[in-house]
Write a structure and sequence with these properties.
mainly alpha; 0% strand; single chain; elongated; 8 helices; 60% helix
Length: 180
Amino acid sequence: MFPFLDLAEKVRKKAAQLPAFAGKLADSARGPVAKAGKLVKGWRERTWDLILRGIREKLPWLEGKLGFVLIGLGLVLFLLLVVLVTALVAPNAGLAAAGEREIPAGETGGLIRDAPIPPEELFLPDEPDFLPGVIPQREARKVWTAEDAEPYWYNPLERGGEEWRNRIRAALDEFLEHVP
């Protein structure tokens, strides 16, 4: 009649099965937990056996305190990691304090920089032009007479005319050889 009553009955039945499920879960977890306990039980002795015999003989007081030593080594490694990260990221305050080099405002300073090559070093400045541009001294003439062009003209046949004739003949001969 009421669907909620059927739903409540189903929830009650599942809740009654829950302790049995939890028991089965605990039974299935007991085996691996026992194996892990056996592995962890003799960790100090097994770790002590890993250390070289010469070191064990020189440090007999270390045998009962191996856990503290391992924690101490972990702490030292953590501190070394913190120092390394700090050296890579932090500003290079030692150089600025010694006066060797001032750190610009935009530069981080440590071993890592924002840009590997600053733009000032990457792009060369413009070189000055050694040749000036064309500077006309007077307006260009629209019509030239033979007397106006005479200072700028020389006859190529006056000096070495035979050489020019030979070049012209060679060019014509080559051209006529290719004509069908």
